[in-house]
């Protein structure tokens, strides 16, 4: 096996791990947007999830409790967003942006006493034989549990949205909240639950970063991944399977550019660092040219305020 | 150096709050001279700003009966910095340390308005009658760790995680590589730039990529301990940066380059007290106690430690220079002639790699 081919396995394994936080956050946001709500606070929810997950893991010594706390903290932030936008009818875009700014500051405040504390890494899966397989072994059978959980969430979300009655109702609320309301569905309650789910998923994505990916707390640890997750939802035209593809593409380019540098291939590193973002923009442009496709998949009531009396 | 640019909007708020606190702290200082410190990061970063604050604490400890100190942390480089420095200057501080490269122009502006206040700016190159500059010869320590790396590697591939391709980092890579090749001519250095001072996720990914390519020793010039954790997990070697990072990977952490400003700060405050302070440029190394190495990993063989200590003392005593000619660049051209040493200017402007580094310096 040549040296370049031998690198393929580690690149695949690293790509899957790099895609995981994006996958959590983007799947959560996808469900939120399918219900007709646009929550731009993903980055803030991720950060609060990351710091709370880390704090609980340090205090209790249990990463599992940490992940649960991360999800709960993300959901808590989302509840704040839900109260403001769904009950008090605040503007969703402005509230979402405020949620991110608030999350950055709040996580820094909570995390003050936790900077520079090391915690144990979550052990990776090891199945004798399978994990040792060439190229795909480590990528498929040697990851952390959370990586598999994120992967499992893709078919689960798809199944929920497209094969269950509850999913149908959620999509109906996102398409036309007035009609759904007229049919007797509790628009606010359904959206609130979707927002909470989105927050919990963002929180888990953040907790994955602080507990597993780089087991430490640092201010702004998510480094913009929340924004990428938001872009991924549009990139995927609101389809869970495509979110997975987008997350892999993004993770893959991120990892590949580091390898290109290490191999001494003469491409400017700044250009390479830019590539994943450039890819996102290009795909957005390509997709946006097809108005019919956007209309087919984008929830029609996305971002619109719902008032039961209207 | 542009450290920590994240979350500037909120940092602004934090700065405002810190300035309120300044007013309170000023009450008990009537005859004592007030000394101010401006940090770019939080003092809890256990790295760059933490080390500067250790210097402030040394001043408190040694001269606490003659001075009081104030610090403002998390100050973004830019317009906010000028307000913070101005606030310190106009609230009676007579000596102010501004500890990041990006504070250079704000420091000079405020200094012009307050000729009676003395300023000390770290890592910059602009001075005036009341602005002195200081920095450490970080590359000296990289000579020592490069030598250790050359002896410890089995794969002969060393991974190097760089922040930005600025002369400070490039000269570090070169000093490291020269010392490494001296003990192990077969070894090569592979550099990955992450274009950030502090991005744990990216630093970890870079470390993994380098290890997957066969590197078994990792050196870094970024501030987070993420790469230490990766090396620990993979059972390889790594060097810490800015502060002792042993606790993030006790088995993997060979040693670390630690900045030490204690002696310099105490001396400069003393000079300001007795009136001998004048504007100057200080670029200190091992000899001036501006940097030291964290305790060596017990797993290091005794002969490697002995050789490292010899190199360190030789540098300290001036018997050895990190850039002792002949030094060849990647094309094999002799840049520093035999018998010559790189001048300070050459080091401060270094934008080329020596033989033994893979890839090219990004332009």
TrEMBL record, chain A:
Pfam families xref list: BPD_transp_2 (PF02653)
Membrane-spanning residues: 6-25, 37-58, 64-90, 97-120, 140-161, 192-211, 217-236, 243-261, 267-287
UniProt protein name: Nucleoside ABC transporter membrane protein
Membrane topology: Multi-pass membrane protein
Principal place of residence: membrane
PANTHER family associated with the record: ABC TRANSPORTER PERMEASE PROTEIN, SUGAR ABC TRANSPORTER INTEGRAL MEMBRANE PROTEIN-RELATED
Keyword match Membrane: yes
Record key words, sorted: Cell membrane, Membrane, Transmembrane, Transmembrane helix
MF terms (GO), sorted A to Z: transmembrane transporter activity
Entry keyword annotation includes Zinc: no
InterPro entries per the UniProt record, alphabetical: ABC_transp_permease
One GO location term (cellular component): plasma membrane
Protein's cellular compartments: Cell membrane
UniProtKB/TrEMBL annotation, chain B:
Source species, domain of life: Bacteria
GO CC annotation terms, alphabetical: plasma membrane
UniProt KW Oxidoreductase keyword: no
Domain ABC transporter substrate-binding protein PnrA-like: 33-294
CDD domains documented for this protein: PBP1_BMP-like
Signal peptide coordinates: 1-29
Keywords, sorted A to Z: Signal
InterPro entries, sorted: ABC-Purine-Binding, Peripla_BP_I, PnrA-like
Database matches in Pfam families: Bmp
Protein name as annotated: Nucleoside-binding protein
